[in-house]
Amino acid sequence: MLRAYATAASVALLLTCSAVTLTSAHEDHGSFSAGEPGNPKKPARVVMITMREQAGKMMFIPDRVEVKKGEQIRFMLRNSGALEHEFMLATAAENAKHAEEMKKNPDMEHDDPNGKRLKPNTTAEIVWKFTKAGEFQFGCLIPGHPEAGMLGTVIVK
Ligand SMILES: [Cu+2]
User: Fold this and answer.
1) What does the pLDDT look like over 112-127, one tens digit per residue?
2) In the structure, what pLDDT confidence band is assigned to residue 6 with cuts at 50, 70 and 90?
3) CATH classification at residue 72
4) Contact (CB, 8 A) for 89 and 98
5) Separation of 28 CA from ligand 1 center, angstroms?
6) Does any domain span residue 28?
7) Please, what sign has the CA dihedral across residues 150, 15, 133, 113?
8) How far is the CA of 51 from the centre of ligand 1 (A)?
9) Is residue 89's pLDDT more than 90?
10) Residue 142 contacts residue 97 (beta carbons within 8 Å)
11) Which structural domain range is residue 96 located in?
């Protein structure tokens, strides 16, 4: 588990370095590490992700998704839990940094192309195009939730 995390973090670090060079060109509309916001009018493969708590743990079901480079995915998110949860798609390193920021501001709301916060018994969608190969992470960064297991992996091949 720790080993897998370390591998993810080092992959993320490499990706972050390459993302930095792109930042200046994309400053006007932000840049995203895991690819780019999708086009809802274009075909997309549906991936359903359920968020919930059970027996002291919090989880995404499934917590691992594989996609092909260039593929567009429509994440259909459902919060079936009793608490609010969020889905933030980035690198593991970015999510870890973001989680630290959220400890200072736990009510930070997310409604971004790569992230949504869902109240209990609500749904949301994210259409995303995975333009880069690598390993990315979807995480719920509400304080305590990553620690309770609310992290998932996207493998882009
Ligand atoms: Cu959560």
Assistant:
1) 999 999 999 999 999 9
2) very low
3) 2.60.40.420
4) no
5) 30
6) no
7) positive
8) 7
9) yes
10) no
11) 34-156
Ligand 1 centroid distance, CA of 79 (Å): 9
Domain assignment present for 146 = yes
Residue 126 domain-assigned (yes or no): yes
Domain count for the chain: 1
Tell me the CA–centroid distance for residue 144 and ligand 1, in Å: 8
Residues contacting residue 66 through CB under 8 Å, at least 6 positions apart: 154, 155, 156, 157
* Residue 14 tokens, joined: 């490499």
Q: Name the strands in the sheet holding 72-79, side by side, starting at the edge strand that comes first in the sequence.
A: 36-37, 122-129, 72-79, 45-54, 57-61
pLDDT number for residue 107 = 79
Average pLDDT in the chain: 85
Q: Is the pTM of this model over 0.85?
A: no
Q: Which residue has the tokens 């309770």?
A: 148
110 falls within a domain: yes
